[in-house]
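Rotation project, supervised by the postdoc (A.L.). Task for the rotation student: set up a whole-complex structure prediction and record inputs and outputs verbatim in this book. Inputs entered:
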Amino acid sequence: MKIKSPKNFWAGLMFIGTGVFFVVWAMVHYQMGTAVRMGPAYFPTMLGGLLAFLGLLVLIESFAVEGPKVPKFAFRPLILISFACVLYGYLMKPLGLVGATAVLVIVSAYGGHEFKWKEVIILSIALIVFSVLVFVKGLTLPFPLWPAAFS
Amino acid sequence: MDAGILGNLWLGFQVAVTPLHLMYCLIGVMLGTLIGVLPGIGPVATIAMLLPITFNLSPVAALIMLAGIYYGAQYGGSTTAILVNLPGESASVVTCLDGYQMARQGRAGPALATAAIGSFFAGCVATLIIALAAPPLAEVALKFGPAEYFSLMVLGLVAATVLAHGSLIKAIAMVVFGLLLGIIGTDVNSGVLRFTFDIPELSDGIGFVVVAMGMFGTAEIIANLEQGEHREVFTAKVGRLMPSKEDFKRIWAPIMRGTALGSFLGILPGGGALLASFGAYTLEKKVSSHPEQFGKGAIEGVAGPEAANNAGAQTSFIPMLTLGIPGNAVMALMIGALMIQGIAPGPQVMNEKPQLFWGLIASMWVGNLMLVILNLPLIGMWIKLLSVPYRYLYPSILTFMAIGVFSLSNNPFDVLIMAIFGLIGYVCVKLECEPAPMILGFILGPLMEENLRRAMLLSRGDPTTFITKPISAGFIIASVILLLIVALPALRKKREEVFVEEPK
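Outputs recorded:
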C-alpha cells in the first residue's frame, strides 16, 4: 500500500488519535450513564467515536486518491513566534509590562526575514509607549510596569 | 412587536446616535477598515483581540463597535484588492480579479467608488432586512424546545462544513474536534471536571477568545512569515473617483443582484461575507452579456461581489441575534461578547433588551454612512498604510494579542494556551483542515450537549424525538439534503470550481 495523499494520511491519523484519546479517557474516568440520564462520559464518547471514524475515512481515502504533499514546516517562525508569546505571559509578573513587551518584540522579530537591531528597538519602544498609554492609562488594566524588584 | 418596525427602528436610532455610541461606531468602522486594508489580519483576530476590552464597555457600545469592525473590514478589504491585488480580507478575494485589472487600466478611482457605492447600498438594504426578518424569526424560535435547538445546531454545523472549502469529511471532523474541545471543563450536570488533567485553569473550560486568537492570530502570522514579503502597491494614480454615466448603467443591476444574493447567503448557517462574494461573482459572470471581459477589468465583477459581501456580512447577524446560533466565526465571537456581558444569547434578547437589539441594527446603517463618507477621501491614507512592511506589523499584532489574552484573567496560562492553539492551527493549515468549522463546533459544543441531554430526558431516551417533532425533523432533513448535495460528484465539482477561482 502506498500513501497517495500525505496530507490526508496525517490528517486522518491526527483525527483518529484525538478521537480515540477522548473515548478512552472518558470511559476510564467518567460515568457513562444511560440515554435518558446521560453521564459525563456519554457525549464525549459519542463524539470521540465519530471523530475516529471520520479520521479512518480520511485515512482510507489517502491510500486511494492522489493528493498534494505536506508542505515543509517553517520551524523558525513557528518556534520563535510561539515562544515569544509564552515568554510574554510568564515574564509579565517578574519583568513588568515594559520588559515583557520588549522581549516579545525582539524574539518575534527574530522569527522574521530581516532583523535589524535599530528597527526592532524603535518598534519595541513605540509599542511599549502605545501599550502603556492605551491599555494601562486608558483602559486601566492592572499590569505592573516595571520589574517587581524595583517597586 | 406592538411598536412596529418603524417604532423599533426609531428606538434603535435614538440609541445609535448618542454621542458615545457614535464614537464607538466610528472606532469600530475605522478599525475595521484598517484591518480590512492590511493583509494578514482579519476581523476574527481583531474582534478576538478586543473582546477582553469590551468587558469595560456597556453591552450596546461593545456590540456596536465589534459589528463595525466586521462590516468595516469588507470596505477596507476591497481597497487592498483593487490597489495591490491582494485580498486585505478574505471576502475580497474575487474583487482582486477585476478590480486590480481596472486599476492597471488607470480606472482605480471608479473601481474604488463602485465598491463603496455597492457596499453602501447593500448595507442599507441589509439593515432593513434584519429589521424585518428578525422579529418573526425570534418569535418562532421562542417556541423551540431542546430537540428543535439540537437539530438546528446540527443544521448550522452541517451547513458550515458544506460551505467550507476543501474536503467535506475533514471539515466535519474539524467540527467534531471543536465540539470535543468545547466539552473540556466542568460538566454542568454532574459537576465532574472533564479533560482538565488536574490543571485548575481548565476547570472553567478553555476560553473561546484564546482559541480563536491562536487558530486565527498566531497561526496566521506564522503562515504569513514563511511566505515572505512581496507586495507591490499600485499607487501610481487613483485618478478620477466618480464612475461615469456609462459605468453607472453597468453597475446598478449587479449591485441589486449582489445585494439580494448576499443577503440570502448571509442568513444561511455557515454563510457570511466570503460565500456571498464568491456566489455573486459567479452569478455576474453567468448573466453577463460579455463574460469574456471578466478577469480583464469588468466593472460588474467589482460591483456585484462588493455589494454581496457587505450584505452577507450584515445579514449573518440574523441567526446570531434571533436564535443565538452563530453562522460563522465572527458571529461566534459576537456571542462570546454577549456572554462576557452576562447576556444569554437567544430569541429572548430582542424582547428583554430592545435597546441593545435595535440600537445595534440602527448603528449598522449609521456605520455604513460613516464608511462611505470617510472612506473615499481617506483612500490616500490607507494607501500609505499599505506601504508599512509586515516586519513592523506582525510584532505589533502579536503584542496586542498577548496583552488581550493576558488581561482575560492576568494569568500567563492563557497565553500558553494561545500559543498551543497557534501550533495546532498551523498544523491544520498545513494539512488543509479548515479552522473555521472547528471554532463553530467549539462554541456550540456545550450548548449541543445540554440540549441533547434535555431532549433525551423529555423523550425518555427515545432518539426518534428528533425526527418525530416536525420542526426538528425539518432541520434534520435539510442537513441530510445538504450533505447529499455535496456528496454528489457533479455538484462537488461545481463547488470546487467556485472556490478555485482565486488569483495567484
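Student's summary: The radius of gyration of chain A is 24 Å.
Supervisor addendum: Helices of chain A lie at 6-29, 42-64, 75-110, 117-138.
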